[in-house]
Amino acid sequence: MSGTVELVGVTKRFGSHLAVDAISFGIGSGEFFSLLGPSGCGKSTTLRMLSGFEAPDEGIIRIAGQDMADVPPYRRPTNIVFQRWALFPHMSVEANVAFGLEAEGRPRAEIRSRVGDALALVGLSGFAARKPGQLSGGQMQRVALARALVKRPKVLLLDEPLSALDLKLRHQMQIELKRIQQEIGTTFVFVTHDQGEALAMSDKVAVMNAGRVEQIASPQELYDAPATRFVAGFIGHANLLPVTVDGVANGLAMVRLGDLHFAAALRETSIGDMPSGEAILALRFERVRIGAGPAAEAAGAAGAGVARATGVVRQMIFGGASVQYVVGLDAAPVEITAEQPHGAGAPVFAQGTPVTLSWEPADGRLFKA
Amino acid sequence: MAASSRRDGGAAGRAKAERSAWVLLTPMCLLMAVAFILPVGLFLLYSFYRFRGGRLEETFTLETYWRFMTDELYLITIYDTLQLAVLATLLCLVISYPLAYAMWRMRSPGLQKLIAFIVFAPVLVSVVVRSYGWTVVLADQGPVNFILTRLGLTSGPVSLVYNMTGTVISLAHVFLPFVVFPILASMLRLDPTLREAAEDLGASWWKTFRSITLPLTLPGVVAGAQICFTLSLGSFVTPAILGGGRVLVLPIQIYTATSDINWPVAAVGGLCLLVMAFIAVVAFGRLSQYSEAV
């Protein structure tokens, strides 16, 4: 990793509130890197420290190998796309995009050609003379992108730029952003609270919570191997079940949930130095299979180590492509949600139907309680 | 059925809302009719009367209008009135914009409130008291001249009072809040991320100010200037006291004419003021349209 951006022990306090707590990580050159977390987790503050609008209380920020401590925003090799885009309302699209180059004192001919290129890149070539007030949300978004990219920053910072768009447009812009990033190869640092957005676009995602980085990984790794209970609950949908670990055998933890006994795959990262006692089992909705009544129990008895639990459907939530069932277990006072793809002969279970849930030992992940 | 009855209800509701709007407007309409339209109509009538030998004659003549357009005394008066309004407005703007900017950027709300109070204070003081105060401060032996002489900036006292200078200073002083607060309001309305965006794009403070802050706060500047200009046109006590008879403005002339029962001159002078104020309002309106459109 060539490390375009490096943060070492970066801490930021607002009064007594610790917004960012000693975070350290590096972002590789040309990476699409997302900072993902719930609101107030410190992701926007981190972005503002990269841009220079906030100064860290402790720690070092290096961009392209240079310490940014005394570098004001207007001298940093970074540019921001703001959340509400912050286009200059009194200037045309062209003047908005040209602003940064004029500030640099570039020759007029160069400004003209670079502005033209930037507008072409975002697909707004015919809109140069319009005012921001005459544009749609998606178009304003593109102008903001062009205005930042025309400066050819080493790192482009994006502060939840898609959150003000409606769903369809947001999906369209996700694809568009990814295309542009691949085309120009600039490092993107993208702040979002939308995990779907982060997973869809990023090469790497840093999941933040309460000022700390919980995990930095590729989207697939985050999904398949969440490092912490927070990540397991935040990425995708997971049942977080309070279980007791009775012991370890053959790399499997023997787990108890009420009267239900089953095995869960043990990973060093997931349980650490605590192989027994109270724990949390994270079980993704879509990994839980659902079958009709006790009959399924007999039919599937062959699978070794497969966890099996009977229960009653308490709620059925139809989501189009998939159906979610909230099932109350017989063996323990807990509810487990199972998600099944809809259609292709999959049966639909009405509320009150007795069902059997099953999952593989490898589907659950154990975390400290 | 349900839809049509709802539509009827909507129409009835609208008519009702319109009626109550008229009820609310009635006091204002009555006031305007009695205190503005009626006097203006009477003035218009009087302006065509003849005044001869200290007596008013009800015969139609355009003589007074002709005198206002040709007699040097009246031309000087109109010129002085405009000069006073323009200078007071300019001085007000020059002081107000940096002041409003400082208040806007200030981090301490306490200090901001204190400055707002100081700016507003002159309005609380009677215009007569304030004007006499200024004559003392600006007098040849007053503190301002004392300091100027002591600092060696001038060899002797500068005449700051009983002329246009003192009048402009005093007017700018009292009209300051009418200019500062509209400008401050336009600054507070400005989205702070716009300035951050400009800074992020590499703009210096000056470039950000010139291309973002100033153009976007121009509507406040225009609104403030409009108020200051029209109020200055109609000022009477301040030029009467601080002008020392050397600042001939229309309101003073109108006052003198009415005490001589010279209604035609007073009427034409008044209409003159009205036309000037009207032109100013239209011109400033154009300017603010332009500044909002850019």
Automatic annotation (TrEMBL), chain A:
<dbReference type="InterPro" id="IPR008995">
    <property type="entry name" value="Mo/tungstate-bd_C_term_dom"/>
</dbReference>
<dbReference type="GO" id="GO:0015847">
    <property type="term" value="P:putrescine transport"/>
</dbReference>
<dbReference type="InterPro" id="IPR027417">
    <property type="entry name" value="P-loop_NTPase"/>
</dbReference>
<keyword id="KW-0067">ATP-binding</keyword>
<dbReference type="InterPro" id="IPR013611">
    <property type="entry name" value="Transp-assoc_OB_typ2"/>
</dbReference>
<dbReference type="InterPro" id="IPR003439">
    <property type="entry name" value="ABC_transporter-like_ATP-bd"/>
</dbReference>
<dbReference type="GO" id="GO:0005524">
    <property type="term" value="F:ATP binding"/>
</dbReference>
<dbReference type="GO" id="GO:0022857">
    <property type="term" value="F:transmembrane transporter activity"/>
</dbReference>
<protein>
    <submittedName>
        <fullName>ABC-type Fe3+/spermidine/putrescine transport system ATPase subunit</fullName>
    </submittedName>
</protein>
<dbReference type="InterPro" id="IPR017871">
    <property type="entry name" value="ABC_transporter-like_CS"/>
</dbReference>
<keyword id="KW-0547">Nucleotide-binding</keyword>
<keyword id="KW-0813">Transport</keyword>
<comment type="similarity">
    <text>Belongs to the ABC transporter superfamily.</text>
</comment>
<dbReference type="Pfam" id="PF08402">
    <property type="entry name" value="TOBE_2"/>
</dbReference>
<dbReference type="GO" id="GO:0043190">
    <property type="term" value="C:ATP-binding cassette (ABC) transporter complex"/>
</dbReference>
<dbReference type="GO" id="GO:0016887">
    <property type="term" value="F:ATP hydrolysis activity"/>
</dbReference>
<dbReference type="InterPro" id="IPR050093">
    <property type="entry name" value="ABC_SmlMolc_Importer"/>
</dbReference>
<feature type="domain" description="ABC transporter">
    <location>
        <begin position="5"/>
        <end position="235"/>
    </location>
</feature>
<dbReference type="Pfam" id="PF00005">
    <property type="entry name" value="ABC_tran"/>
</dbReference>
<dbReference type="InterPro" id="IPR003593">
    <property type="entry name" value="AAA+_ATPase"/>
</dbReference>
TrEMBL record, chain B:
<dbReference type="InterPro" id="IPR000515">
    <property type="entry name" value="MetI-like"/>
</dbReference>
<feature type="transmembrane region" description="Helical">
    <location>
        <begin position="216"/>
        <end position="241"/>
    </location>
</feature>
<feature type="transmembrane region" description="Helical">
    <location>
        <begin position="82"/>
        <end position="102"/>
    </location>
</feature>
<protein>
    <submittedName>
        <fullName>Putative spermidine/putrescine transport system permease protein</fullName>
    </submittedName>
</protein>
<comment type="similarity">
    <text>Belongs to the binding-protein-dependent transport system permease family. CysTW subfamily.</text>
</comment>
<keyword id="KW-1133">Transmembrane helix</keyword>
<dbReference type="GO" id="GO:0055085">
    <property type="term" value="P:transmembrane transport"/>
</dbReference>
<feature type="domain" description="ABC transmembrane type-1">
    <location>
        <begin position="78"/>
        <end position="284"/>
    </location>
</feature>
<dbReference type="GO" id="GO:0005886">
    <property type="term" value="C:plasma membrane"/>
</dbReference>
<dbReference type="Pfam" id="PF00528">
    <property type="entry name" value="BPD_transp_1"/>
</dbReference>
<keyword id="KW-0813">Transport</keyword>
<keyword id="KW-0812">Transmembrane</keyword>
<keyword id="KW-1003">Cell membrane</keyword>
<keyword id="KW-0472">Membrane</keyword>
<feature type="transmembrane region" description="Helical">
    <location>
        <begin position="160"/>
        <end position="185"/>
    </location>
</feature>
<feature type="transmembrane region" description="Helical">
    <location>
        <begin position="21"/>
        <end position="49"/>
    </location>
</feature>
<feature type="transmembrane region" description="Helical">
    <location>
        <begin position="114"/>
        <end position="133"/>
    </location>
</feature>
<dbReference type="InterPro" id="IPR035906">
    <property type="entry name" value="MetI-like_sf"/>
</dbReference>
<feature type="transmembrane region" description="Helical">
    <location>
        <begin position="261"/>
        <end position="284"/>
    </location>
</feature>
